[in-house]
Amino acid sequence: MILFSAKTGCVFFSWLQTHLRIPVSRTQPIKAQKNFAVITTVELIALLWTFYLVLLFTYDHTFFGDRHPVTYLIAFGSLLWSLFLIRNLFRVKQMGYAIRYAIPTVIIFWNFVEIMGRWNVLDEIWVKPYEYWFEMILTLGIFVALFGVSLLEKRTT
User: Fold this and answer.
1) Distance between CA 9 and CA 136 in Å, rounded?
2) Whose CA is closest to 110, among 38, 47, 43, 68?
3) DSSP states of 60-111 as a string?
4) What digits encode the pLDDT tens for the residues 43-76?
5) Cα-Cα-Cα-Cα dihedral sign, residues 50, 113, 84, 95
6) What is the pTM of this model?
7) Cα torsion at 60, 66, 101, 10 (round to 10°)?
């Protein structure tokens, strides 16, 4: 829908429209407000599935395997890319834009975390929760405290 609609303002979709020679109207007849919730949702879904497929094909030994140089390139490339995005994120002044910018930053950084877990460099606590009982109880306590604070704030307003 976005790809074949009028001018979107998204650099990626504009590039695709140009290079795939998709004829779209470059002017919008009515000045419409951007629906940031839809934009953020589409970006989230596209990034999650893209990087899921990248890691799926990378881990498959038919293509590369988890110890292949391409996997190292993806891991450390994702780390460098996310550090670059984090640097840019600290320059953002508007909260809404910062949240929208932080979502892809975390997804890209998570590729590095996933590959480190695959290489057994990181011991993920959700894989062995009984070995990390203190961290699990601490996390549960934080969630309960935040839930309690949100209930108290709702009563005072």
Assistant:
1) 43
2) 47
3) -TTTT-TTSHHHHHHHHHHHHHHHHHHHHHTT---HHHHHHHHHHHHHHHHH
4) 889 889 999 999 999 999 999 999 999 999 999 9
5) positive
6) 0.68
7) -40
CB 101 within 8 A of CB 92: yes
Neighbours of 150 (CB within 10 A): 9
- Amino acid at position 107, single letter: I
* Both tokens assigned to 129: 């929760």
DSSP letter, residue 7:
-
* Sign of the Cα pseudo-torsion (95, 77, 52, 136, in order): negative
Q: What is the pLDDT of residue 9?
A: 65
Q: Which amino acid is at 103?
A: I
Domains in the chain: boundaries = 1-32, 39-122, 131-157
Q: Which tens digits make up the pLDDT trace of 5-51?
A: 666 666 777 788 888 888 876 655 555 677 778 888 888 898 899 99
- The tokens of 155 are what? 């009563």
Q: How far apart are CA 89 and CA 104, in angstroms?
A: 11
pLDDT digits (tens, 9 = 90+) for 70-101: 999 999 999 999 999 999 999 989 888 888 88
